[in-house]
């Protein structure tokens, strides 16, 4: 028997992927299109919604590759990354110089 009060709250999630042709990080929006801006992503608040959104995103295989769910925080109502990987992806393709790479050039 589990006590519901002991369960961790479900963190808001978004669907993210890479644009098939350009490789940029993209985010699934409420209008079911893809945006390069994480703040435009549609956040969901439970596992069933997240699974449905991911399944819908995966029907657009001609536009994206590697869709997955990412945890976010909601800052002023807009999704913001909480994990380093997602923060890094918002900066663009990793073939650009970032951080220490810039200092070594």
Please provide the ordered H/E string of secondary-structure elements: EEEHEEHH
Structural class: alpha+beta
Number of strand elements: 5
Instruction: Name the helicity range.
Output: 10-25%
| Contiguous uncertain segments of 5+ residues | none
CA gyration radius, whole angstroms: 16 Å
Counted by DSSP, the helix tally is 3
What distance separates the N and C termini? 58 Å
Shape: globular
Tally of domains: 1
Strands of the widest sheet, in order across it, are: 3-2-1-4-5
| Strand content bin | 25-35%
User: What is the typical, i.e. mean, pLDDT?
Assistant: 87
In short:
The protein has helices at residues 47-57, 84-89, 100-104; strands at 13-19, 25-28, 34-35, 64-75, 78-81. The protein is an alpha+beta fold and 105 residues long. Strand 2 and strand 3 form a beta hairpin.
Descriptive report:
Strand 4 and strand 5 (78-81) form a beta hairpin. The chain is globular and about 50 Å long. The chain has helices at residues 47-57, 84-89, 100-104, and strands spanning 13-19, 25-28, 34-35, 64-75, 78-81. Helix content is 21%, strand content 28%. It has one domain (10-94). The chain has a 5-stranded antiparallel β-sheet. With 105 residues, the chain is an alpha+beta fold. The model has no long low-confidence stretch (mean pLDDT 87). The protein contains 3 helices and 5 strands.
